[in-house]
Amino acid sequence: MRGSNQRARGTLALASLFALSAILGACGSTPPPSVAPPTPQPTPVITPDPHLSEPVTADQIFTAIRVAKLPLSVNNATAGLPGAPIIKQINAQIANWPLVITQYRSSEVLRAALKWDPAAGPKQGDPPYSWVAMNILISFGPVTGKPTAPDADRQQQAETLSALVDPLLWPIQQKSMAPVPTKTAPPPASPPPSAAPSVAPSKAP
Q: Which of 2, 54, 145, 173 could form a disulfide bond with 118, CB atoms 3.0-4.6 angstroms apart?
């Protein structure tokens, strides 16, 4: 009996030792560090260049103006005769003020037909606002009589028009009773090609 009791006590002591070792091992172990997944880098957004290339159509300009919150209405559109300087003219209104978008065959044809001189300013029979860029003429306001200085509402409408078409047509020239600032800087002028240095001819005998 004594031997059985001793074996039982030995077995119990060994089991207790194993249990204590397991507890100590559990308390002393540290969980593996958690590794955060790498943060994906945002894809760069490429802003397309809205600038149009000549020849520009009157429809392109009218579409850009139509998306703005302006009291815009369309009267009609006319096409020029074959060989005429004008290809198309869109006649519209903004709050009962005429808005005319005229598409010429080229910028050279436009300036020759209008004898365009932005430094001259509006004169008798000109609208209060005119913008020219490439082969497009945009006129805003009545053309009867001598143009007068517009009120604040008309000036705001003119500034909205300029902000809409300026990114498409820069650089813009204007003849206005109250000049409207353009928001897009003209493209930088490309430097002229440098001349290669001249090499003196050899005077070898």
A: 173
